[in-house]
Design a protein that fits this description.
Largest sheet: none
Number of strands: 0
Mean pLDDT: 95
Order of helices and strands: HHHHHH
Helix content: over 70%
Low-confidence stretches: none
Strand content: under 5%
Shape: elongated
């Protein structure tokens, strides 16, 4: 980062790098949660939901790229080993040991809500103090909010489908 870029940041850069590394760990875990869950998933609407979960996984990987680039721009060192992801993450990684589609979706929903909290806090922390990180955080936050809505909609669709099926059986 250039001299002027460093001069206009009005916050504790070490603290910011720490927060960004936590976000980086969470993005890697989110990527894998989506990717493996999409592969393992079974149940209704699987064929419609799987490609969307894989798209979400790709977007999470893109978020990781944005975050790692920002850490480096700030003069920090990104997490260098996957062994540290679970240690640094403030979000849980939920093992997809039950492949039912609603279970997978609820696990991903938990992850999205954690990410929303992380990026909301990061946007607040950097607002008016680090414009570049703030813009990145709000961009990622918008995508995480879209992911949450997608997942909520799928869960609602599945619940509606199950209710309609019950009515037909009566």
């Amino acid at each position: 980062m250039g001299i002027k870029g460093k001069e206009i940041i009005n916050l504790d850069v070490d603290k910011l790098i720490e927060i960004l590394n936590k976000a980086l760990a969470e993005e890697w875990l989110a990527y894998y949660q989506y990717w493996i869950g999409a592969r393992m998933m079974e149940g209704p609407m699987r064929s419609e939901i799987e490609p969307e979960l894989l798209l979400h996984a790709t977007q999470e990987l893109g978020h990781a790229e944005l975050v790692v680039n920002r850490i480096i721009q700030l003069g920090g060192t990104p997490i260098l080993t996957p062994a540290d992801w679970m240690k640094m993450s403030g979000c849980d990684y939920e093992i997809p040991d039950d492949p039912y589609v609603e279970v997978i979706l609820k696990q991903n929903l938990d992850g999205e809500r954690c990410a929303i909290k992380r990026y909301s806090e990061l946007a607040d922390f950097t607002n008016g103090k680090d414009h570049v990180t703030h813009q990145m955080a709000t961009q990622i936050l918008n995508e995480e909010l879209e992911h949450e809505q997608d997942i909520e909609d799928w869960i609602t669709d599945i619940e509606t489908m199950k209710e309609n099926f019950k009515k037909l059986r009566m």
